[in-house]
Design a protein that fits this description.
Layout (H helix, E strand, L loop, with lengths): L6 H31 L3 E7 L2 E6 L5 E4 L2 E2 L12 E2 L3 E4 L5 E9 L16 E10 L5 E8 L10 E4 L11 E2 L2 E9 L4 E4 L11 E8 L8 E11 L2
Antiparallel strand pairs: 1-2, 2-3, 3-6, 4-5, 7-8, 8-15, 9-14, 10-15, 11-12, 12-13, 12-14
């Protein structure tokens, strides 16, 4: 601390040094809050310093912090001081999806494969619950596989969608297997889905918690590449 004359000046120097330190602590807290925002979490509720967050890829969490302020005996107001942020994760499911493909004729697999007119593609969709609670009413939808690209069309291969409606999967069953006509989703079975369908979706009533042996499932179907 630089030399000063008089108690009042010394107190002021001490105050402004602490004001600077308080500003640095405030900036540090602001940066921490910015990092929280970078985690793609959406604030859905906030009451009395408690923030309830819903993550796009996980389950909800409750975050909480506190702050305080004070004065010296001489009446000088010091800057706020802050606690760190504490987090309580709420129990909840977290479903992850992965899709793979295979050219049935050549056996080629991967993110990109080669196909010729008349080839069939076998699609596999895997799901897994990595959260801390069971999931209900899981809906898995695929419409992009039936898109027309460059004049090339595709046809659903009847009977290829598995599991079928009513079949057991994960901790429950397929309560509905549905087909899309471009505007309406309609209940169907693997064999009654039209070859010109524009989408397939499965509705699954229950997926178990990790470690239960009923937290994963596999969905499959095939399409045939055709020319107009």
């Amino acid at each position: 601390m630089p030399e000063t004359q008089g108690e009042g000046v010394a107190i002021k120097v001490f105050y402004f040094q602490n004001l600077k330190q308080g500003g640095e602590r405030l900036a540090e807290k602001t940066n921490k809050l910015k990092e929280v925002n970078k985690m793609k979490k959406l604030v859905i509720s906030g009451i009395a310093g408690i923030v309830l967050l819903a993550s796009a890829s996980a389950y909800a969490a409750v975050q909480n912090s506190a702050w305080g302020n004070y004065k010296s005996l001489g009446g000088f107001q010091y800057p706020d001081t802050f606690t760190g942020v504490v987090t309580a994760n709420l129990v909840g499911p977290a479903i992850n999806l992965a899709k793979s493909q295979q050219n049935v004729r050549t056996g080629q697999t991967g993110q990109t494969i080669l196909i010729a007119n008349g080839d069939s593609i076998h699609y596999t969709i895997n799901f897994q619950n990595s959260g801390t609670d069971s999931a209900t009413e899981l809906v898995v939808t695929d419409t992009e596989a039936f898109a027309i690209i460059g004049g090339q069309t595709v046809q659903y291969i009847p009977g290829s969608a598995v599991p079928d409606s009513g079949a057991a999967i994960a901790a429950g069953k397929v309560v509905s297997l549905e087909s899309f006509d471009g505007s309406v989703w309609s209940p169907a079975t693997s064999t009654t889905i039209p070859t010109n369908t524009l989408g397939i979706r499965w509705v699954i009533d229950l997926v178990g918690i990790p470690g239960s042996g009923k937290d994963t499932g596999t969905l499959e179907f095939r399409i045939k590449v055709t020319s107009p």
